[in-house]
Design a protein that fits this description.
By secondary structure, the protein is of the alpha/beta class. It has a nine-stranded mixed β-sheet with strand order 3-4-5-2-1-6-7-9-8, with helices on both faces. A hairpin with a 7-residue loop joins strand 3 and strand 4. The longest helix has 10 residues.
């Protein structure tokens, strides 16, 4: 079912209901992992990444690919197995350790000198490095720059008041000619407080439009019983390509 013609397409930044003021703390995210309240995790990986993988890679091999707010995303293993170098950041140490254990990947753990209390977990093969800390503690001087980004469950999880800060950080972490696949969600924000938060296309353009070309690749009906329980009557995933040109 295609809801692209739904009135939701007309919702703008001023129509995001009460979400603008909503704040989810780091403690709340940690509790979600501790309680196993992780309905956002996709055990089989994300079909949109499989479908548009060539768009992300653009015929290139040996890329550095960033997974912001990565959780235990199985796609990190896919890309590492293809010969790419994967870097993720996640606040939950449990999520990071679960990723390595669920894929039977040996790893080493070490502190991050530049960030108090942060840890970096790296596969012994060296091609997967996951930082356990706040994403806002990272910078290109610590983790370098990236040729590609898979942003699913990241921008939509960031507190609305932090979106500009998040976008500025992400822009600082990408190389010229990089490809950034961004998955947002669309629903009536007056019926669900989030997360995930509704991010209108107009806001994506205001956050990233000065630095890259933005193209909407696909809208997918992802409505499920879970969303029905939230009081929603539609729920879309919207995939954008952000192309950072030289």
């Amino acid at each position: 079912m295609d809801h692209s013609a739904h009135p939701s397409g007309l919702l703008e930044a001023s129509d995001v209901g009460s979400q603008k003021e909503r704040v989810v703390t780091e403690e709340e995210w940690l509790e979600k992992w501790e309680m196993g309240n992780i309905g956002f995790h996709k055990e089989e990986g994300h079909p949109l990444l499989q479908k548009y993988l060539d768009v992300l890679l653009n015929g290139r091999s040996g890329l550095r690919i960033f997974f912001p707010l990565c959780g235990k995303a199985v796609e990190m293993k896919w890309l590492a197995d293809m010969g790419h170098s994967v870097v993720g950041v996640e606040i939950s140490e449990q999520a990071v350790k679960d990723f390595f254990s669920e894929h039977s990947l040996p790893y080493c753990e070490e502190p991050v000198p530049e960030i108090s209390g942060a840890k970096m977990f790296q596969s012994t093969s060296g091609n997967i490095s996951l930082y356990c800390c706040s994403i806002y503690d990272l910078s290109s001087s610590i983790i370098g720059k990236f040729d590609g980004v898979w942003d699913r469950g990241a921008l939509v999880a960031v507190n609305p008041c932090d979106r500009q800060r998040y976008a500025s950080l992400m822009i600082s972490l990408v190389e010229k000619n990089s490809s950034y696949l961004l998955v947002t969600v669309s629903y009536d924000p007056n019926k669900h407080k989030g997360p995930p938060f509704y991010v209108p296309e107009s806001e994506i353009k205001s956050l990233f439009g000065n630095c890259c070309e933005i193209r909407c690749l696909e809208k997918v009906d992802d409505f499920s019983e879970r969303h029905k329980q939230w009081g929603l009557d539609y729920f879309l995933e919207v995939l954008y390509l952000l192309k950072f040109v030289a």
